[in-house]
Amino acid sequence: MRIKPVSPQSLGYAAADKRIELLRRVGESGSISQAARSAGVSYKAAWQAIHTLTNLAGEPLVDSSVGGAGGGGARLTAAGARLLHAAEQMDAARHDVLA
Q: Does the predicted model carry a pTM greater than 0.90?
């Protein structure tokens, strides 16, 4: 009997990975709307993903300001940066296990 290899998709990480990817893009771009565009999702979907992560984390992950004449913006909080770092470590460990 041949054992089928385990894939990341079969472990059910896809939704969490997409949310983390959006958070990473916010950190890189300084904008939720830019992160949404680059990820190919709506602003609402990006905002909801960040909101979900924030609720799970129990503390703000993104500090945002409303646009206007000078434009708005978003930056990761210290908690957001820590979450991204932890997610990178978990992803590396997951890839090592699956290799």
A: no
Beta bridge partners of 76: 62
Q: Of 74, 70, 92, 94, whose CA–CA distance to 24 is shortest?
A: 74
Round to whole Å and give the CA distance between 59 and 43: 21
Confidence label for 14 from pLDDT (cuts 50, 70 and 90): low
C-alpha pair distances (Å), 52 with each of 8, 23, 67: 21, 11, 22
In 3D, which of 61, 75, 66 has the Cα closest to residue 26?
Answer: 75
Tell me which of 10-14, 37-41, 91-95 is least confident. 10-14
Contact 92, 84 (CB under 8 A): no
Q: Are 26 and 74 in contact (CB under 8 A)?
A: yes
Angle between helices 78-98 and 43-57 (to 10 degrees): 90
